[in-house]
Amino acid sequence: MKISIFGLGYVGCVGSACFAELGHDVIGVDVSTTKVDLINSGRPTIIERDIDELCRRGHESGRLRATTDARSAVLATDVSFIAVGTPGTGHGHLDLSYIYGVARQIGEALRDKDSFHVVAIRSTVMPGTNEKVASIIEEASGKKRGEGFAVVSNPEFLREGTSVKDFLNPPLTLVGTDCQRAAEVMHELYGSLPAEYISTDIRVAEIMKYVNNTYHALKIVFGNEVGAICKTLGIDSHKVMDIFCRDRHLNISPYYFKPGFAYGGSCLPKDTRALRALAADNYVDVPVISHIESSNDAHRHRAVELILAQGRRKIGVLGLSFKAGTDDLRCSPIVDVVETLLGKGCAISIYDKNVQVSRLTGTNHEFIMSKIPHLQHFVTDDLDAVMAASDVIVVTNAEKEFKDLPARYPGKIFVDLVRLWDELDYEGRYEGLAWANINQNDAQNAEMEKDFAKSAF
Ligand SMILES: NC(=O)c1ccc[n+]([C@@H]2O[C@H](COP(=O)([O-])OP(=O)(O)OC[C@H]3O[C@@H](n4cnc5c(N)ncnc54)[C@H](O)[C@@H]3O)[C@@H](O)[C@H]2O)c1
Q1: Tens digits of per-residue pLDDT, 119-162?
Q2: Which of 103, 144, 231, 340 has its CA 20 to 30 A from that of 168?
Q3: How many of the other CB atoms lie within 10 Å of CB of 283?
Q4: For residue 219, with 0-12 CB atoms within 10 Å meaning exposed, 13-18 middle and 19 or more buried, which class applies?
Q5: DSSP state of 165
């Protein structure tokens, strides 16, 4: 396949050399004549393991060359990768002017190109950039997105130092697109790599890199905070974290990674507080561990706001215990939500098949009496009675018996805290706590447009 790659820095140089190694014809494009000359003399623009050899081989085979002429590169290729820099502005925002500049150049060239062209954004960009790039290309080329050209999101996961190896053995290949034709082109390009190929929504692909890198940063900081606590106690933190990582069921696993409701129960709140107290007692500053609870509180407040935002006062709560299949109410986050809603004058009905107020004992009973002493007035084991009495139904446990309720009660508004439903679109009668309805994207795009105006190109 014929490929042009805009930007010959770390990402572009490695991508150019590796695609040439995979047998594609590659034209690198950069505003720097120094970088272009380096590639055209068979040398890399960066220092990286294995890159010298790949650039030399690409040059000798005639499959790798470079130019400063964007137009000729676009006209001679089927796919253009954008791998230019996206520097931070210092406040966390991105300067996307290089991306938009390249988009315009590609668009202007496409005016004179008859065949379909795929533009792949390889740089790390914020959700919504893909749409903006497409609209710049539409304006500059006079062509329509999805017909004359497509813009796909194809984030790069390489690490400097091992970038050639990472390119050729990626953890996965990710392509975000709404265009079948472009998806096929991208699959042809990457199909030979030994990695899972994932085709997904554009915005999912766009935000992925930020989620990955923030999580990597979180892991580093968490490990270091554990290390700092262990050191003051004379404990070998490496032994601790080695054992931590050996638990592949709960620790290093997809478990607990689904956006849903706040955590609760008798263990997580108590034990995170205890580790925080242990650190404080030893004068160890652990900001991440210390703020876990406030993050959980913020999420519970989001649930309250989402419920109140429905503008109705008759609220049905399905599930009161801290998770499905138990009657344990201790530190159940929905108990706090109910307490707040009662304080705001809402009429509450609660259904939980596992909770019988008269049979609660011990700390479980003490906890609920301290929060909602008159609980028995709100709880019933009659699901249909709760449905009949309520306008807004809040689902807090993923019980199968709730699954067909939207179909059975078409007039109700459902606020889903646990992603019980995947369909997402109940004609405006559904809200998820921590996920967007797909049909909300138009509104989100309009919001993004406002932001883009600030970083005008
Ligand atoms: N470096 C990494 O490890 C890494 C990993 C994954 C993703 N990324 C992302 O990839 C993007 C590129 O990163 P990088 O480290 O390769 O940047 P870089 O600064 O090393 O390279 C960017 C290149 O783009 C060129 N350029 C700027 N404007 C241009 C234009 N109009 N036409 C052609 N070329 C132009 C510059 O001259 C430069 O050579 C960034 O968004 C970055 O966040 C980087």
Answers
A1: 999 999 999 999 999 999 999 999 999 999 999 999 998 889 99
A2: 103
A3: 7
A4: exposed
A5: H
2 near 24, Cβ under 8 Å? yes
d(CA 27, CA 66) in angstroms, rounded, equals 5
Ligand 1 centroid – CA 98 distance (Å): 9
Active site residue 267: yes
Q: What number is the average pLDDT over the span 24-52?
A: 97
> Distance between CA atoms of 355 and 148, rounded to whole angstroms?
60
Q: How confident is the model at residue 101 (pLDDT cuts 50, 70, 90)?
A: very high
Question: 168, 223, 187, 176: which is closest to 49 by C-alpha?
Answer: 168
Structural domains in the chain, CATH included, are: 2-207 (3.40.50.720), 296-434 (3.40.50.720)
Per-residue burial over 410-425, b = 16 or more CB atoms within 10 Å of its CB, e = otherwise: eebbbbbbbbbbeebe
> Could you identify the atom of ligand 1 that is nearest to the CA of residue 160?
3
User: How far apart are alpha carbons 350 and 315 in whole angstroms?
Assistant: 9
Give the per-residue pLDDT at 443.
47
Check pocket membership of 31 for ligand 1, CB cut-off 6 A: yes
Which 3 state secondary structure label does DSSP give 245? helix
> From the CA of 83, how far away is ligand 1's center (Å)?
5
Closest CA to 123 of 167, 82, 91, 79: 82
Q: Strand 25-29 and strand 314-318: pairing? A: unpaired
Tell me which residue of 39, 47, 38 sits closest to 19, measured CA to CA.
Answer: 39
